[in-house]
TrEMBL record:
It comes from the Bacteria. This is VanW family protein. Residues 1-18 form the signal peptide. The keyword Chloroplast does not apply. Keywords: Signal. PANTHER family: EXPORTED PROTEIN, EXPORTED PROTEIN-RELATED. The keyword Cytoplasm does not apply. InterPro entries: Glycopeptide_resist_protein, Vancomycin_resist_VanW, YoaR-like_PG-bd.
């Protein structure tokens, strides 16, 4: 209300005809042309800025130019790969720039003002939390079953290098995302209501189950975990974690005072999951049976 009142006072003291477009540029290229008349509403004898339309315009502009930051990662050779800074619209500065030209009877070119968005995970943090391995687990599968092996690889890549901050939660479904053909997942055998059937993304429950056992060994607080309705061959009985996009999820919370780093990789017919954190953390590990215990 205060801003609208000030605009009205400004109009009365500076009556002008608003007729020229404002061209918005980003990195020197035009991204939008604003017709001033489209953002006006009548008020007495003079038009004023329509705040709702102005807000919608800013929202759309921000969506168009937003560049997500990229977290630092650890590659297959164990080297830290630097992250990248992202960018977003500097709303306060843009509003000031826009309003300074809006009530002038002249055309204007406005270069979008940006604010840096820093990655949540940088090289320094990764270097700190890769020091102590507090949990690990390995499971095995038939690598000749190409579709299932492919799905396992995609899910393992999705959780690899994921960092969970203290008090933060991890959702397997949210991190891995929906398993679809468009995202590269293939039809493969999966258990649904106790029956073996073909489904897009079949096999990823082995990844969630491997992760569950690594997390449990690390003494991390499990929030949500469900077993299959039928025994699975890759973990001891009761040690699996079934997941489905429209059904059960596997979630846990970082109950330590330092971030956790998940490292996951498919190698041949094996899926490895490791959990790391800072060497300053005092862990409370749990005794978790290994796959070898199924054979002995």
């Amino acid at each position: 209300m205060k801003m609208t009142f000030l605009m009205i006072i400004f109009l009365f003291s500076n009556p002008v005809m608003v007729s020229n477009d404002i061209i918005i540029t980003y990195k020197g290229k035009s991204v939008s042309t604003i017709n001033k008349a489209d953002l006006m509403v009548p008020f007495l004898d003079d038009p004023v800025l329509d705040q709702d339309k102005f807000s919608e315009m800013i929202e759309q502009l921000e969506q168009n130019i937003y560049q997500s930051p990229v977290d630092a990662t650890i590659n297959d050779n164990g080297a830290i790969v630097s992250g990248e800074v992202g960018y977003k619209l500097d709303r306060t500065k843009f509003k000031e720039m826009f309003l300074s030209h809006f009530y002038q009877d002249t055309p204007a070119n406005l270069e979008v003002p940006l604010v840096e968005v820093q990655p949540a995970v940088d090289e320094q943090l990764l270097s700190k939390i890769r020091k102590q391995k507090i949990g690990q687990y390995i499971t095995y599968f038939n690598s000749n079953k190409k579709e299932r092996a492919h799905n396992i690889m995609l899910a393992a890549e999705a959780i690899n290098n994921h960092v969970i901050f203290p008090g933060g939660t991890f959702s397997f479904n949210n991190v891995v995302g929906k398993r679809t053909k468009e995202r590269g997942y293939l039809p493969a055998p999966e258990i649904v209501k106790g029956e073996l059937t073909q489904g897009i993304g079949g096999g990823i429950c082995q990844v969630s189950s491997t992760l569950y056992n690594a997390i449990d060994r690390a003494g991390v607080q499990v929030l949500e975990r469900y077993s299959h309705s039928k025994k699975v061959p890759y973990v001891p009985p009761g040690r699996d974690a079934t997941v489905s996009w429209y059904g059960p999820d596997f979630t846990f919370m970082n109950n330590y005072n330092q971030p956790l780093l998940i490292r996951s990789k498919k190698i041949g017919g094996s899926i490895y999951v490791e959990v790391f954190t800072s060497e300053t953390v005092e862990i409370s590990p749990r005794n978790v049976p290994s796959v070898r215990d199924m054979i002995n």
